[in-house]
Amino acid sequence: MQPFCFDFGDRYLDFGQWRLAFRVYTELNAYTPAPDAIRVAQEGARTVVTADSFAWAGLQKRTRGAFRAEVLRQGDELTWSIRASLPERIKGTTTYVRGILNGDVALRDFSFAPLANGRHDLLQYPTRLRVPVYFIRHGQDGYTFALSEDNEVRGKSFAVQEDTGGILLELHHHEDARKWSIEHESPRWQLGKTSDPPAILSRRMRMMESEWGLKPWEERPDVPEWARRICLVLNLHGTHWTGFIFNHYARQLNIIRHVCERIDGRHVLAFLPAWDGRYNYNWPRYEPDPDMGGEDGLKRLVAGAHELGVHVIPMIGAQSANRAFLPPALHDAAFQDAYGNTYVKPVEWDKDRMPDTYRVNASLGHPGFRSFLFGKIRGLKQRFDFDGIFLDINQAFHNDPRFHITEGHLDLARRLYERFEDFLVFGETWYDGIMPAYPLVHIGALERWNNIFEKYCRVTYHLNHPAPGRGSTGVYESGFGVPFVPDPQHDIIPAIAFVEDTLDDHKDYIDEVIEVARQYGRRKGIL
């Protein structure tokens, strides 16, 4: 962020304990309602703030326009929305809130930490914050909250900074780049105090159910009955980006057999990351790896797992696509930012300390890329009888001016649900807008108030879950972590990471996690 080094000149208006100021952002500049043009009218509990001009550059310059904010005050809560028009296309609006007492600020999982400049002072939805709800904790029982009532997935930024005697809260709404216009209306914001954060989160949950059709886990039609019985996930690492093979198909089947001697296979999900050769590099070819056992070896793996009651799901990329394997006609599927710049994520894979930018970061919002992936998934199902599909990096979000990524996820999931019976769509993680598409993810349990997720979906341990022994993170390549045995009391499906030495050298650990899976299953009423 480039902070202003001058006083921008915002006029703050009193609303009980809080003081609000407003800004409007265009694709060219930043504006505040001109302080001397602001008019305030009281209509019962409703305050209407209007202005017929804007100021900018520290009040040095003026421009014509229209501004209107309607603020409703009810007890310890405020609700408001913003309408604005300017000669330039508007990309978003912001409300600044003063009068908030000092406290700890929310992190992405709803744990809390002290505010520090450069740390814990910004959360963006949906890229980091999973729901557009934010909390500041005062002591142990009191909270200030801010909630967006937006029923579309549009960017929000919650920023906090130290203020005289308290905290300054910034509430930013970022308009869908497809809808930038000289006329703008923001969704409503809520601001208030609470001693019951789950009650605030339940407001968002009710909106998800009424507006998006999201149903509780037990009622979701896109959850196969077999998936409701899963209490153990096997992360069967395949081939690393460099070509190092952790487990070929025959060894993966041996692992499954070993596990199923100790627990009924109907409660086991075999997850296949890098089943198709070089992890990430080979995407989106999605063909069996000859060095792992080829097509016949993969068929034997799936058939052998099915004989034991185990269900098998392979990984593909929701957005990562090597230009060498992506049809040239689909290279325009690469994400763009709101200004039309192509985005390439600078990931470093080969340890030469330089980014390897061989890939397109493709958007499922692109109709052609979405159809391409649907065709790949359909072919894999027909050839190998997989029980679902895992989409990696499903959380990526860019305000692309051509198409909307969230709409693409929902459409692909709908097509898969309609095309196949008993087929599970599994994703890397979640934000509220893609919960209707992904009943199961492998990261994202909340530190507090996990019911906002657990009511609708299930989570297991991420691909980088450390394997026993040295703690290898396998094909994910985040080095070595600290192995641990999952806690059956956590709302996370237990998982075991299998790298090259796990089956041979760590059978005691495998047995220990299987027992945890039984305890989890009994607690959930699965066993």
Count of spatially separate domains: 2
Largest sheet: 8 strands, parallel
State the name of the first-level CATH class of the largest domain: Alpha Beta
Shape: globular
The CATH architecture of the largest domain is Alpha-Beta Barrel
The counted number of beta strands is: 26
Q: Round the Cα radius of gyration to an integer and report it.
A: 25 Å
Strand order of the largest sheet: 25-24-23-22-19-18-17-26
Q: Please name the CATH topology of the largest domain.
A: TIM Barrel
Please indicate the percent range of residues in DSSP E strands (runs of 2 or more).
25-35%
What's the number of helices? 8
Mean pLDDT: 96
CATH superfamily of the largest domain: Glycosidases
Could you say which structural class the secondary elements and strand pairing correspond to? alpha+beta
Low-confidence stretches: none
Question: Ends: how far apart?
Answer: 51 Å
Into which percent range does the helicity of residues fall? 10-25%
Structure description:
- The chain is built from 8 helices and 26 strands.
- A hairpin with a 3-residue loop joins β11 and β12.
- α2 runs parallel beside α3 and α4 runs parallel beside α5.
- The protein has 527 residues and is α+β, with helices and mostly antiparallel strands.
- The chain folds into 2 domains: 200 residues, Immunoglobulin-like; 254 residues, Alpha-Beta Barrel (TIM Barrel), CATH 3.20.20.
- The mean pLDDT is 96.
- The longest helix has 18 residues.
- The strands form 3 sheets. The protein has an 8-stranded parallel β-sheet. A 5-stranded antiparallel barrel has the order 2-3-5-6-7. Strands 20-21 form a two-stranded antiparallel ribbon.
- 19% of the residues lie in helices and 31% in strands.
